[in-house]
Design brief:
This protein has 12 helices and 5 strands. By secondary structure, the protein is an alpha/beta fold. It has a 5-stranded mixed β-sheet with strand order 1-2-5-3-4, sandwiched between helices. α2 packs across α3, α7 crosses α8 and α9 packs antiparallel against α11.
């Protein structure tokens, strides 16, 4: 985690708990195996790069795709949502194309049950979107996108940060002519959302339980004598990220990061 925080430019978080839940609930599978989970991951990766493989006048390179989602360097952990989710065997044999609309897709992308990060027990309305990009694939008219965005704004279905000009961005992409699809329109959401801190908080809580018991440290100590100090430093790095995501929900976030920058410069 520390390496991802300090060295990565962008990280797309996929939670195994959420992937297994989606396979169980949305695909009606009692015991989803690794193959199904990997198919979900590959579907997300394929959709996220569709604007690169079918380039248009916007979002046709990786830097342009990611730069609009990350306003500050440390807040670079993205959560994803995808809809509609169909079992791959059913998708291949389906002969009828279902008439999904742009509005249906964009509304479902905002629903927690379609997100690939576990949000169980989390009230999404208490957290805020820092940025959001919806990649809509299929036969789509730009006027449909405009009307859908207007409906979502009117109903206030997405809550954004108060300190920046955040909104729902939309990229239109073609579908592969070689892959059969059971739906006319599908969508992928790449979102920078403050609720991602709960995933990190669970990791910190689990680490603290093991750390207090000094569990599983023997094999690490044989490799390095200062491994405990390294783990504690990594834990503090993750805790600082949790605090920053929490601060991003407040109007004074700019003052928060400015104060941290001054403190770091003073330490150096």
């Amino acid at each position: 985690m520390k390496r991802l925080i300090e060295n990565a430019d962008c990280v797309v978080v996929l939670d195994n708990t959420a992937l297994n839940r989606i396979a169980s609930e949305r695909l009606q599978m009692d015991k989803p195996d690794v193959t199904i989970v990997n198919q979900l991951v590959s579907q997300i990766m394929s959709a996220s790069t569709s604007t690169l493989r079918y380039p248009g006048y916007m979002n046709n390179d990786l830097i342009g795709l990611v730069s609009c989602l990350i306003p500050t360097p440390r807040l670079h952990f993205l959560m994803t949502g995808y809809t509609p989710i169909v079992a791959f065997d059913k998708q291949a044999v389906s002969s009828a194309v279902r008439k999904t609309t742009v509005l249906d897709v964009m509304r479902r992308l905002l629903q927690p049950q379609n997100m690939m990060v576990s949000t169980t027990g989390i009230r999404m309305d208490t957290h805020k979107y820092i940025s959001m990009l919806n990649i809509i694939q299929g036969d789509v008219d730009a006027t449909q996108v405009h009307k859908s965005l207007q409906r979502i704004r009117e109903r206030r279905q997405a809550s954004f940060i108060p300190w920046g000009p955040a909104s729902i961005q939309v990229a239109l992409s073609k579908k592969s002519p070689y892959v059969p699809s059971a739906h006319r329109v599908s969508g992928l959401m790449l979102a920078n959302h403050t609720s991602i801190r709960n995933v990190f908080k669970n990791s910190v809580d689990n680490f603290d339980k093991l750390r207090n018991r000094m569990a599983f440290l023997r094999s690490f100590k044989e490799v390095s004598t200062n491994i405990v100090d390294e783990l504690d430093a990594s834990r503090e790095c993750v805790a600082d990220l949790i605090d920053e995501y929490e601060a991003a929900e407040r109007p004074d976030y700019i003052d928060y990061i400015s104060g941290n920058v001054y403190e770091e410069e003073g330490d150096n």
